[in-house]
């Protein structure tokens, strides 16, 4: 997929991984609509990007991915301004085990909402041009992060939802590929947010587990994850694919075609 002049939307774009995705898309010639709840960081980033890439290449939109009204409204504004949507990255996410309903609403609800709303603009049967959606999960979408069961649940949810939607898109000929990114720990503000007791809830004593995991295996830089993101965007053979990135390598995860084909152990029900 050639990214020149493509219209991209990134949620949680004001910092961290979202910012890296915005920058790699701009470097490849795309226009990018940045969505975030953090107004000051969003405006600050927009000014920085204006200087490097020119004012017409980006727009910042203040919106909360948990609000149907906000999200629907900004996608309509984006289509009015840029003419269409070719690429969406549902990246906005938090880790907050104490306020777990909020974590589910942003990490899973925001991904579901973004995917459904953007498909209305992107799918070919509605006059869209097709394109690609990348949903940001985590390695916690594939295995448990012990001190964060809710975060783990949301990220597993993102994997399951996105794989199912990729199958729907293929069967219904939407012309939209839907892929999933599963990074290991990345150096962003998300990691420091977990240090606050407010975010950890009753799992505070287990905080050391994540620190040990990072001491043992390291921590990714956001620009490395952005390169993996670009693979999922550009490779037109990828739909419903899960790309896992850890400090040693980036690998596509193989799932059996059917649940019945998982490696299994028979159980006697006698
Ligand atoms: N940092 C890691 O170790 C890591 C690893 C794997 C996956 N991830 C995932 O990557 C994504 C980005 O995380 P990050 O590490 O860059 O975090 P970050 O905290 O640096 O950035 C997240 C951004 O999302 C925005 N945001 C939060 N709630 C929002 C909402 N309701 N609506 C709109 N925007 C909202 C924040 O304002 C912030 O700018 C998340 O989904 C996270 O779960 C992070
Ligand atoms: C100092 C506190 C750090 C708290 C970490 C906070 C958030 C991190 C979120 C990342 O998405 C986690 C990424 C990778 C680790 C997740 C699961 C491990 C799976 C282990 C395995 O099965 O190999």
TrEMBL record:
It comes from the Eukaryota. GO terms for biological process: prostaglandin metabolic process. This is 15-hydroxyprostaglandin dehydrogenase [NAD(+)]. Belongs to the short-chain dehydrogenases/reductases (SDR) family. It comes from Sinocyclocheilus rhinocerous. The keyword Hydrolase does not apply. GO terms for cellular component: cytoplasm. Its EC number is 1.1.1.141, 1.1.1.232. CDD domains: ADH_SDR_c_like (cd05323). Catalyzes the NAD-dependent dehydrogenation (oxidation) of a broad array of hydroxylated polyunsaturated fatty acids (mainly eicosanoids and docosanoids, including prostaglandins, lipoxins and resolvins), yielding their corresponding keto (oxo) metabolites. Decreases the levels of the pro-proliferative prostaglandins such as prostaglandin E2 (whose activity is increased in cancer because of an increase in the expression of cyclooxygenase 2) and generates oxo-fatty acid products that can profoundly influence cell function by abrogating pro-inflammatory cytokine expression. It catalyses: resolvin D1 + NAD(+) = 17-oxoresolvin D1 + NADH + H(+); (11R)-hydroxy-(5Z,8Z,12E,14Z)-eicosatetraenoate + NAD(+) = 11-oxo-(5Z,8Z,12E,14Z)-eicosatetraenoate + NADH + H(+); prostaglandin E2 + NAD(+) = 15-oxoprostaglandin E2 + NADH + H(+); lipoxin A4 + NAD(+) = 15-oxo-(5S,6R)-dihydroxy-(7E,9E,11Z,13E)-eicosatetraenoate + NADH + H(+). Keywords: Fatty acid metabolism, Lipid metabolism, Oxidoreductase, Prostaglandin metabolism. PANTHER family: 15-HYDROXYPROSTAGLANDIN DEHYDROGENASE [NAD(+)].
